Amino acid sequence: MQELTRSGSRVAPSAAKRRLWNQSAITSYGAAVPLAVLIVVLALASPYFLTLVNIRNILLQSAILGVLAFGLTVALIAEEIDLSIGAVEGLTAVFAAILCIQLGVPWPVGALLAVLAGFLIGYANGVMTTVLDIPSFIVTLGTLGIASGVSLRLTDGNSISGFPAGYVVIGRGSLFGVPLSTIALFVLFLIIWFLLRWTRWGLRLYATGGNAAAAAELGLSPARLKTLALAISGACAGIAGVLISARLNSANGSLGQFDLLDAIAAVVIGGTSLTGGRGSILGTLFGVLIMVIIRNGLDLLGVSPFWQTAAVGAMILIAAILHKFAARLGS
Question: Which of 26, 99, 175, 186 has its CA 20 to 30 A from that of 282?
Answer without folding.
Answer: 175
